[in-house]
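User: Here's a chain of 153 residues. Predict its fold as tokens.
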Amino acid sequence: MNVIKFYNTAGQHLFTLDVPRAKVNAFTWDSSGHRLALALDSHIFFAEVLPDYTWTFFENTLVYAYRTSNHETRVMFWNTITSETHVNIVNGLISITSCRDICVMATHGRDPGRFDLTFCDTTGHASFKRQVEVTSAMLFFRSNLYFFVFIAD
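Assistant: Prediction complete.
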């Protein structure tokens, strides 16, 4: 059994991939850094590596979440045309989605089983908030009808 260990640029271990063949003959990334190829014995395996980013794009605005060095979650609203940026500090972020001219951030509520939905414009300004009660959630937002689906299990 072979393993391939992944580290970030600061040298912190991110992930270990167990490789179930006798010998890794070659390992390479494509130029985007999102796909890799492994040559194992007489086989070639391809994998797509998807970073665990929470993001959405609407009205020429890229919205993405990141964590700071002090473990604070921030959400960046970046207008890709004007390069104008706005940052919001968001506690308990679960998901971000968008449709047309609205972005929705789902966060853990103060009480167990409660989630807050914050509706924002392209600058991150909260238009209004709603609280919903479900056990767990996955957020979808589709364009032609302006509807939200919370899936509870």
